[in-house]
Amino acid sequence: MRRAELVTVGLTAAIRLAIIGSWCLFAAGCNYFQEVFGSAVSSERGFQLVGTSGLPFSATISDLDSSWQIQGAVPLTVLLINATPPVRMVLTKLRNDDFSLMSVDAIGGSTIVYANEASQPYATTQLQLTSTVPTIGPPANPDIRYLVLGPYGMVVNGTIEDQNSVFQVSATAPVVFIFKQPNGPTTAQLSENNIGFGPMTVELFQNGVLTNTVTNGPNVLIPSHPSN
Fold it and tell me: Where are the beta strands (DSSP E) in the chain?
């Protein structure tokens, strides 16, 4: 790995840890997700993809009984709400070179676990949380995702809820929140924690279809499509 790549990745990780640390000073429990109504829910689980900015990738995320396909570009954070552990991500680099770098961080509770890096052409790497995922489950149904876009490093916090539960969320953009098996329609209320970065855009995807988009700042309210 080139020295410049090591420096870039190291600084990126340090910035993320600093942001999470400062948020913990103000958020009880120091968690990305904390259920405030309804039955108890285990700590959040997810992955941060970092490395060469703009590097395209494809990934499969799976928990005990469901799976999700994702295509995007680095950097991106993917966080699961209501997942059933264990959780695994299989990540593939979509570029035929040996210098573009991709790296995966696993998120469990308030802990970031640094994973392997890869730079080979079309390299594949994977990371598992808690234990081994026995098989890749069927595609999640319904598949509910909130994609939050904004200037890199924008801290976003708020709530995502269904008819039974409200989850407090906090992450840095860009981030996609995947809500597994919500009970009825869902709503996201999100705010910029570091006001002044610029507006954010929140896109709601339901079963692969973009059904709602809101661009605003510093606050965004985005409910499910009325047909949900």
Answer: 34-35, 45-51, 56-62, 67-73, 76-81, 87-93, 102-108, 111-118, 124-129, 143-149, 155-161, 166-172, 175-180, 187-192, 200-206, 209-216, 219-223
Question: Of 169 and 109, which is predicted with more confidence?
Answer: 169
The full DSSP string for 93-115 is E--S-SS--EEEEEEETTEEEEE
For the chain, the average pLDDT equals 78
Give the tokens for residue 150.
Answer: 């904004």
**Residues 6 or more apart from 214 whose CB is under 8 A from it?**
201, 202, 220, 221, 222
Question: How far is the C-alpha of 145 from the C-alpha of 141, rounded, in Å?
Answer: 12
- The tokens for 192 are 């910029």
Residue for token pair 């469990």 = 108
Q: Is 159 in contact with 168 (CB distance < 8 Å)?
A: yes
